[in-house]
Amino acid sequence: MLPPAKPYKTSLYLSCAWNDRSAFRELVALLQTCRDRGFRFDTFLLPEDHPAAGADNERSLYEAVRGKMKYCQAVLIPADAPSAYSRWINKEIIAATSEMNKPLIAVRPPDSGEPSLIVKQNADRIVGWDAEAIVQAILELSAP
C-alpha cells in the first residue's frame, strides 16, 4: 500500500493502443483511486482520429506521437498491445526510450496474455492492473 504522501502531480502519455477499448477510461479511473494519497495526473495521447493516424507518412505519425509525449514524465503502454496497434506502439517505444529517455511502464490489463517481446525488451517496468503498482512505478521511475 502506498503511504500517504505530499501531493504529487505528473503528466502521463497514454499509448494510442488504449484508444481501442474502454481500457483507457478504466485505466484513468484506476489511477484516480490514488488521488486520496496525493497522486494527481494529466493525460496526453494521440487520438485515433488525429490526421497523422491515417497518414501513409510514418514520419508524420512519429512526430505527432513525439509532440504529445514531449511534456510527459512517463509513458504507459498496454503490455498486451494488439498487433493492430504495432505501428503506434513501435513509434511510442522508440520515442520514449531512444529519443526522449522517458520511463516506459507496461501495464497488464486484466485477463491479458503474455507481454510481447518488444514490450519485454523495452519497458522499464511491467506491472499488473493495480493502481498502487502503477503509481509506485511512476513515482520511482519519473520522480525528479
From TrEMBL:
Q: Which InterPro entries match?
A: ThsB__TIR-like_domain, ThsB_TIR-like_sf
| A Pfam family per the record | ThsB_TIR
Thoeris protein ThsB TIR-like domain sequence ranges: 20-111
Q: What is this protein called?
A: TIR domain-containing protein
Please name the source species: Paenibacillus chitinolyticus
